[in-house]
Amino acid sequence: MNISEQIEDARSGNVAAQRYLFGHLADPMMALCCRYVKSREDAEEVLLDGFYKFFRHLRDFRYQGEAALYAWIKKIMVNECLMFLRRRHAFSMLTETAAEDLPRIEEPLANLSAAEIFDVVVRLPVGYRTVFNLHVIEGMEHKEIAKALGISEGTSKSQLSKARLLLQKMLLENGITYVRRKTR
């Protein structure tokens, strides 16, 4: 049975189809939640809340391919993460003066694996991490981020800049340096 059939069955309340969809989508969505929410337990809570909304609104979803399914559930999960951060009052914008003195390194994360990048990103303060994820990972523009978080565009840009500088600092402190690749 393919995904579109599973979605149709899940819409009609078929528990086996819902279990299949959860199993198919849970791992990548958990990774997404962990990028925003530091604690694994909190990320699991957000994941379950997101899946609750996913199944509750599945009747409204029009399947147009697996990419559309992933985009839709990803949007649900990102919104759940942001709501969780707001509810917990965990979302705050910080000023990081320690990051201001660092030289800029071109493409500082280019030579790291995804797991290494993830390990460093999750150590960022929540405000930096959230803006970094929304802009760099989700591809949102600062105007969209500002609206989603209730901040100004300037604050979004500032938080991203400071997140990048702090990431560089954290990497340098761990002895990770980069040589800029020569382009042909």
Report on the structure:
- With 184 residues, the protein is an all-alpha fold.
- It folds into two domains: 3-87, Rna Polymerase Sigma Factor, Chain: A (Orthogonal Bundle); 97-173, Arc Repressor Mutant, subunit A (Orthogonal Bundle).
- Helices cover 65% and strands 0% of the residues.
- The protein is built from eight helices and no strands.
- The radius of gyration is 19 Å and the shape is elongated.
- The termini are far apart.
- Mean pLDDT is 84; it is low at 101-106.
Spell out the blueprint of helices and strands.
Layout (H helix, E strand, L loop, with lengths): L2 H9 L3 H22 L3 H17 L9 H22 L26 H8 L4 H12 L4 H8 L3 H21 L11
User: How would you name the CATH homologous superfamily of the largest domain?
Assistant: RNA polymerase sigma factor, region 2, helix turn helix motif
Architecture (CATH level 2) name of the largest domain: Orthogonal Bundle
CATH names the topology of the largest domain as Rna Polymerase Sigma Factor, Chain: A
CATH level 1 class label of the largest domain: Mainly Alpha
Q: Helix fraction?
A: 55-70%
Derived structural class: mainly alpha
Q: Overall pLDDT, averaged?
A: 84
The low-pLDDT segments are 101-106
- Annotation, overall tally of beta strands: 0
How would you sum up the major sheet?
none
Beta-strand level of the residues, as a percent range?
under 5%
